[in-house]
Amino acid sequence: MRCFISIEIESSIKKAIGDFIEENNLRKNLQQIRWVNPENLHITLAFLGEVAVERIPAVKKIVAEGTLNHHPFTIKLEGLGCFPDIRRPRVVWIGIKDEPELLSVREDINKGLDAAGIFYDKKPFLPHLTIGRVKSPIKIQPEFINKLNFTASFPVQEISLMESNLSPKGASYTVLFSSALGE
Ligand code: 2AM
Q1: pLDDT-based confidence at residue 128 (cuts at 50, 70, 90)
Q2: What CATH number corresponds to the domain at position 113?
Q3: Is the ipTM of this complex over 0.90?
Q4: Is position 55 within any domain?
Q5: Does residue 179 belong to any structural domain of this protein?
Q6: How open is the CA angle 119-60-127, to the nearest 5 degrees?
Q7: Please, which pLDDT band fits residue 183 given cuts at 50, 70 and 90?
Q8: CB atoms inside a 10 Å sphere around CB 180
């Protein structure tokens, strides 16, 4: 099963991001970008890739143990940017303001994955919310991106283990397990 660990986004925020894309005419202005279907928006903490079905219970336990000692926190979304950078955009994201609890819960889950020998993508973690992926080469003017701004905040109460199913129609995601942050 193709899996990742993520923070799910409140439906009101998903809708606000969908509206933001429409209101700024981004589909028309940036046609080379495939905008993420609002219902698929999420914040990835760790991408695991293929996990054998028999290892899923162990991953659930790691997610539960990793979240236990962390308090609920607030995600503040602010500003837009691109990976790897604006001159060679591949991904368009909304930024996340520094949030120590987000980093420490991620670190604890990763420690659990390391201890159990479960693979995850070890690229440096830059907290972000992907809203679009470049499908064909595009030049984006920095002024265009810089003048767009999306801000919102929402409380995070749980961390989820997700399954990703890829198909020619795009990805679809299913929650396999969610673990509440401690009080
Ligand atoms: P993202 O966090 O930038 O959106 C499911 O595929 C999720 O895992 C996607 O949201 C994706 O990117 C994230 N992800 C992180 N590393 C990945 C990788 N090496 N391959 C596919 N998805 C990855």
Answers
A1: very high
A2: 3.90.1140.10
A3: no
A4: yes
A5: no
A6: 60
A7: confident
A8: 12
